[in-house]
Fold each of these.
Amino acid sequence: MFMLTRLSYNIRATAMAFFTLVGVLFVSFATPMGRNNDHAAFAVMLIGVILLGTASNYGESFTLTFLQRYPDTIVGAWSSGTGISGVAASLIFMGLTSAGLTEQQTFLVSTPVCIIYWLCFTVGMVAPHKVLVATRTDGKTEEIIIHCLDEDEETHIPMLREQTLARDDVVSVTEDYEIKMIMNFRGVSWRNSPAIRKPEPAKDDSEEGDGLYNPCCRFLCGCCSPTNGLRRWWREQGPDMILMHNTMLWFFFNLAVVYIAEYAAQLMAPFSFYCEPEWVDNFWVKNSYVVTQFCYQFGVLISRSSLLIVQIPYVGVLSIIQVINAICWVIQAKLLFIKSYDKKQQVNMSFILFAWMIFIGLMGGASYVNVFYLILQRSTKMRQKEEEEAVSKYLAAQGHDMGDHAAGSQHRDAAADMGAEKKLHATEPILADMAREHSDEMTQPSGGSDTGRTEPTHAQPYQLTVDNADMTDAEREEIEQIRRTLNDVWAARRETGMNIGAMYATIGITLGNLVCLVFTTRC
C-alpha cells in the first residue's frame, strides 16, 4: 500500500486484474493442479486465495487513493459500486449453483469480470487533466497532456510547448493549459509519478538528525544503515504517514472496529440456523448462508449509496451498534435462541436473521463511506489551514503588518462567503458537473473560459489580502508557488490517508476472521 505509491495507476490496475484472474484459475483448478492430492490441492487453493486477497485489498487501496483527485463526495459513488458488486456476486453465485453448475464452473464464469474491471478503469473512467491544445497542419487539434507536479509547471509547460512546436505537423500551441476529462488509458501516465519535493523539516538535536524520532520507527529502521532503502523510504514517507495517522486515528479505529464486528457476525451465520437433516430440501434452509450474505450485501449497498442523502459524522455510534450486533450474533450461533423445532416455524424465524443481517450491512456500509468521506473532509481543512499559515508567515517575513493575522481572518471570511470547501487541485470547474452539491463551493476560472487556466481558483482568497497589503508581483508569485507546492504535498498526504484507511479495513477483516475462527472451533 505504501511502497508503490509512485507506480502508474494504469499499471496497478493491470496488475490487480492479472492477479485476480490467476487467483480465480488457481482456485478453480486446485484439484487437478494438485494431481488429486488433498494436501497439494489445498496448497494451490491457498495460493489462489492469497492472490485474490492481495488483488482485492491492494486494488481497494489504490482506487481510494486515485479518488482523492475528485470531489470528496465521489467516494460515495465508489462505495455504492462496491455494494452493487457484493449484491451481484451473491445473486450470481446463488443463481448459478441453483441452476446446477458446480462451484468450479461458477468461478470460471466470473473470469470475464477481471477484463471488465480493467476496461472500466482504463477506458471507461475519465479524470481531469491539464492539456495544451495543438493545432496541426491538417486543421485538426491535438491534446498534449501535461504530466508534472504543480510546482514544476512554470518550467515544464514552456518546455513542452517548445517541443510540440518543433514538430513539423504542428502549426500552433495554446499559451495556457485547459482542463479536460480524459480516459485513464490515455490521460494517466504509464510511467512512475514524479517524486514530490517536500520542504526540509527543522531538525532537532533530540532527533539525532536521522528522522527516527518515533519508537516504532527506530524498531523498524534503526538497524538499517543511513543509506539503506528502508530508511530513505521512511525519511520520505514517514512524516506524512505519522501526520495522517495521528490526525485521522479516530476514523481509522472506528473503521477497524466495525469491520471486526461485522465480519465476526456474518461469518457466524452458518452456525446460526437450526436445521434437522430432513429439512435440507427446503430452499431457505439449504441456502441460508448464501441468502444471509446477500442480505448483508444488500444492506451494504443501501448504506454505501446514501452519502449524498445523509452524512453521519458520529461514526463512533455506528461502531458501538455493530459491536452489539456481533456479540448478539455470536450468542445466537452458540445458543440458537432464535429457533424452532417445527420446520415451517424455523423457516419463518430464519427471516428474522435475514433482516438482522441487512441491519448489520447497513451499519457496516454507513461506517465505511462516512469514514472515508470524513478523512477527505478533514484533510481538506488541514490543507486550507496550512496554506493560510504559510501565506501569513511569508507576508509577515516580508514586513507586511498582519494585524494579529488579519490576513488569515480575511481568508477565512472570504472562503466562508465563497463556500469554504475548495479542492486540492485546479480542476474544480469541470468537476462541478460531477458533484452538483459542490457547485456553490467551486470558483470558476478567470478569463470567461470554462476550460481556461484555473490558477485563480486557489489564489482568489489571497487576492483580497494581496490588494490590502499592497503586495508586489514577486510576492504574489511566491504566494502562488506556495499554493502549488501545497497542492502536491497534500495530494500525496490525502493518498496516504486513504491508504492507511484501507490498511485498517484489512486489519479489521483479518481480526474479524480470527474472532470467528476462535468461536467456530467450539461450536
Amino acid sequence: MITKKLAVFGVSLVFLLGSAAGAVANSKFQEIKAALNPALNVELNGELLAPMKAIIYEGTTYLPVRNIASMAALSSKIEYDQKNNKLVLGSKKSINVSSPSSEGFYQLIINGNWHPSLLTRNHLLYSNSYMGIEFYFESVEGSSLDSYTASALKAMGGKSTHQAELTLAKQKAKEISYETPGSVGKLAIVKYGSDYITLNFFVSKPQFKASDFDEFEKIKTSFNIQ
C-alpha cells in the first residue's frame, strides 16, 4: 500500500478539469489539469462505503466533503490501495474479555465504526444503528457445551432455526442461528476449559438482509485465545 495525503474541499467543490475554463474566468480559482477517478472505493474503519468520485493532483487525492462528512478521526491511518483502487481510512477495532481467574484471554476484531453500550471486564456490547455484537464469557463447572448452549438460547428468548458444530481458535464450538421478536442473529459459543465464551451477533429484524451475516463471518474468523 502507498500512503497518500487526503484533502477535503467544501460542499461546493468544483472539479477543475480541462473544459472547466469558463468556471474560473472571473474567480480566484486556479485552473489545473488533474486525473478524475470516477469510482474510488473507500474503506472506513473496516467498513466499505459507496464508491466516490475523486481527483488526483500532484500525488494528493481530493474528495468532496459531502461524501465524507460523517467520517471521523481523519488523522488516523490513511492509505491508498492502488491494486484495489481503494482508500482506507482508520482501522478495525480489537476488543477482548478476560478476568484474573479465566482460562484465557479472549479477543475479537470488529468494525471500527461500532460504538460500545456495555463495557465490563468480561462482558462487552458494540453496535451501530441496527446490528452489533455481544461478547462475554463465564466460568461454569460441570456443564457441557450442549447444555450451556441450550440454557443461553433460552435465557435470551431466542428460537433456534439452525444449529451446527464447528471449531474456533482450535476449540470445540457450537453455532446457532436464531430469531427473537425483534431481531435475527447468530450465536457462537466456544468451550475452553471451564470457560464458555459467547459471540452473539444480532441484527434488527426490520432492517435485516441475508448479507448482514457476512459481518459475523469476519468477526467469528477473528476470534482467538491468548
Amino acid sequence: MKQMAFAAGIIAGLASMSQPTYAEDAEWGCQILLCAASQSPSWHGVPYCVPPMKRLITAMSKPHFSWPVCHAANSGKPGHQEYEDCPAGMTPAATPNGRGSDGFAGTELSQCIKVVNQCQDRSAFQSQYGDQNANAPNGITITPIQNNRDNWTGGGCEVKVSQPRPRRADPYYFDIPDENGGKRRVWFNLNL
C-alpha cells in the first residue's frame, strides 16, 4: 500500500504541471523515475515500464551518455552501490591480489574482513571457520597475520578472515523527495 501511495505522490507531482499529464506522456527521465520506484512488482513486471527502461539500458552503452533526469520531481541521476554492507563485525576491504571487477588492482571494496583471535575460544572458532571444505565454496579464507607471535607456540593467535562482499540485487537507487521534506531511497536494477 505504501508503494502505491509513493508512486501516486510522484504522479501527483507530475500532474501538478501546467497541462494534464499521463504517465505515458511524461518526459523520459520522469518515466524512468516512475518505473524505478515501482517495487511490487518491479519495473520488469509493469508493461508500461519495459520500453523506457530498455531504451535507457541501450542508451547507457553509447558514448557520451547522459542520464535522463526528471525535473518535475526534483531528482537527478541515480546513485550506484554495487555491494551490500558487510556482515556485522566485518569491514569492507579491497581485493588484496589481482583486479576487481572495476578493472583496477585492489581499488574495489569487494571483500569483507575481520581479525579473529583463534586462541581465545578455539571451539567457537573451529565451529565457525574450521572446515576448509565448507569455507572454500563460500570464498572464505583464513590468513595468518605476519609477525604475530602472541602465543607460546610462536604461530600467532590472530588471523584475518576474509570473504567476498555480497553483491546487491538492486545496485541503483534514487533518493526521491517526499511530501515531508525528507527523502526516500528506492533501489532498482537494470537487468533485462
